[in-house]
């Protein structure tokens, strides 16, 4: 967490994504470890019967890691061993937290995507500006060359006039 805060403070670009990520860390007391633990979840879930929804298959470890309530995770485990009509005992508040987290994550991803699009456009504009600058430089070179040739021509004419 200290590294995350240090990186957050040291960062030159404190954009909305960083701020909202920091808020979520403060709110839930964790980082996005759900992304790291999801493959482990899936491999553990393959051995079980596939009768639960995606939310219930993810929720067992997520609830324990996120909220520090092992009894809720145990109730999920017990529910998975019961018949297919039973559902895990996850509180509405926990579902709301999961929902808020997923909504925030979706917003963060949308913001990052828009940020990348903006950066791409800025790079395109910068490239066009550099192309224009190069063309202006080439034009200046040609004008200089023309002026030089014109000066040489004027000098030749002057010499010819003096020679007559």
From TrEMBL:
Keywords: Coiled coil. Residues 39-53 have a biased composition (Basic residues). Residues 35-92 are annotated as: Disordered. Residues 92-152 form a coiled coil. Residues 54-68 have a biased composition (Polar residues). This is Uncharacterized protein. It comes from Aspergillus bertholletiae.
